[in-house]
């Protein structure tokens, strides 16, 4: 008897699902029984015969006949079962169909209950298992449950669904490259969105404050400072540092090497010389001797000769949300992530400042990676929700252009196409230790400055010191970690 899954099956894939076809069709004799395929819990297999059974099919001989009539019937029954497949009335022979029925029932209950988080996870599980029928149905249902104008989970789910569709259809890379959320807006608009998130949330201010404070303390008394920034972007971080140096009785000479991928030029409206000119103007107004050295190459391609370090310079290296973009051994045998760290160590820097997301998506299997992304970005979207109204168009654009692209990349892409490869602090600590670095504890002055910063934001933000690093999070979820090394 056919199983009823209470789905509208007209012209849908469920009617051709191989497990259901096998369950709905009774076993019948075939003209050539030895070629019969039998459905069993491990898939479709051809029956295997012993040598004596093979002999019996071709030319029965006296060796096949038992003197015991009961034994003869038993042997014939075994041969018949092997050749003809299981009896259609023996429902216990079809655990797959029963499992499928229970699975659909469970999924229908989750969807009917409107549990968006569980529906997302169920869809991701179906994609991970290669269950196309279930994945397609759940994606259709999710399309009715998500909205970029809804609550934080609904908004996040809209982008996660986009990632699931991409992952399910073409393993991510093809659809990801044409997703609307990846199409960059005009540079001036993107810059304005980045400024909005800079003002709305404390994450980047926290990074700049902790990194600059650490650099100032490590460089105390030095006369030739060389700061190497592995993703200088607009150079915003160094404006405050220049002003602080300018307030000293005798400002030191400051050289900044700014590294950035040439592909990011559209956000600035030009090459890195724009950043250099802006910083030079500020340095001049603060009477700080200044030199800017642009390096327009992707971070993973940087070689030591690009950095232009000279004898007598006190070196500080800065990685703000950058190291996780550099591919490691799981992507490329060259392992640029560890190569860059060893190269930086060879410079004997006074300090290395790092800010990274506290998330584990680098080498995690797809379903685990999906769950981690859901938990991490749900906290991020909640933190945005308390500062911008849901109907605010700027909020929608900020999430679309500053966060959605990351989300889709983590979910949809694999290999070199997946550039968002976050690791938790424990893994970074191991990498840095293997490269020869030792942790530098952040001073009480920096702790006090961070606490003062957070007073300007929602009370659900929290900052804790653990293992010599500062963890900034939303409610009970750690989001970013600031640390220093030498």
Automatic annotation (TrEMBL):
Pfam families: GRAS
Ranges spanned by the short sequence motif VHIID, renumbered to the chain: 225-229
InterPro entries: TF_GRAS (IPR005202)
UniProt keyword annotation of Transmembrane present: no
Keyword Transmembrane annotated: no
Region span, Leucine repeat II (LRII): 274-306
Keywords: Transcription, Transcription regulation
Highest taxon of source: Eukaryota
Region (SAW): 412-486
UniProt family annotation: Belongs to the GRAS family.
Name recorded for this polypeptide: Scarecrow-like protein 21
């Amino acid at each position: 008897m056919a199983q009823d899954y209470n789905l509208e099956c007209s012209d849908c894939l469920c009617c051709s699902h191989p497990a259901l076809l096998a369950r709905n069709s009774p076993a019948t004799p075939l003209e050539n029984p030895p070629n019969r395929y039998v459905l069993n819990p491990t898939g479709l297999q051809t029956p295997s015969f012993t040598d004596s059974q093979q002999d019996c099919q071709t030319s029965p001989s006296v060796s096949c006949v038992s003197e015991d009539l009961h034994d003869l019937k038993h042997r014939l029954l075994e041969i018949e079962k092997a050749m003809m497949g299981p009896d259609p009335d023996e429902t216990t022979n079809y655990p797959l169909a029963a499992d499928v029925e229970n699975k659909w029932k469970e999924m229908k209950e989750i969807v009917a209950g409107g549990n968006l988080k569980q529906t997302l996870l169920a869809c991701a599980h179906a994609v991970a298992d290669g269950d196309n029928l279930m994945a397609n149905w759940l994606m259709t249902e999710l399309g009715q449950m998500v909205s970029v104008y809804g609550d934080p989970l609904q908004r996040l789910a809209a982008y996660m669904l986009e990632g699931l569709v991409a992952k399910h259809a073409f393993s991510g890379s093809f659809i990801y490259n044409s997703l609307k959320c990846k199409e960059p807006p005009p540079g001036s608009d993107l810059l304005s969105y980045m400024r909005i998130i800079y003002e709305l949330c404390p994450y980047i201010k926290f990074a700049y404050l902790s990194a600059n404070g650490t650099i100032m303390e490590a460089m105390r008394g030095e006369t030739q400072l060389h700061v190497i920034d592995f993703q200088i972007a607009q150079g915003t971080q160094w404006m405050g540092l220049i002003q602080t140096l300018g307030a000293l009785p005798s400002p030191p000479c400051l050289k900044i090497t700014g590294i950035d991928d040439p592909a990011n030029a559209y956000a600035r409206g030009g090459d890195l010389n724009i950043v250099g000119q802006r910083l030079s103007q500020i340095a001049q107004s603060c009477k700080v001797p200044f030199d800017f050295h642009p390096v327009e190459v992707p971070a993973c391609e940087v070689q030591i000769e690009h950095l232009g370090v000279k004898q007598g310079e006190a070196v500080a290296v800065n990685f703000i949300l950058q190291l996780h973009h550099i591919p490691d051994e799981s992507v490329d045998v060259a392992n640029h992530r560890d190569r860059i760290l060893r190269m930086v160590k060879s410079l004997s820097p006074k300090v290395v400042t790092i800010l990274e997301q506290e998330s584990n998506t680098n080498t995690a299997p797809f379903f685990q990676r999906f769950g981690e992304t859901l938990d991490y970005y749900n906290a991020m979207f909640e933190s945005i929700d308390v500062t911008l109204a849901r109907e605010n168009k700027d909020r929608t654009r900020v999430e679309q252009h500053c966060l959605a692209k990351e989300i889709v990349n983590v979910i949809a892409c694999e290999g070199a196409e997946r550039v968002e490869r976050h690791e938790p602090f424990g893994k970074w600590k191991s990498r840095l230790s293997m490269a020869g670095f030792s942790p530098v504890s952040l001073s009480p002055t920096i702790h006090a400055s961070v606490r003062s910063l957070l007073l300007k934001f929602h009370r659900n933000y929290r900052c804790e010191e653990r293992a010599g690093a500062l963890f900034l999070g939303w409610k009970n979820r750690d989001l970013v970690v600031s640390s220093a090394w030498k």
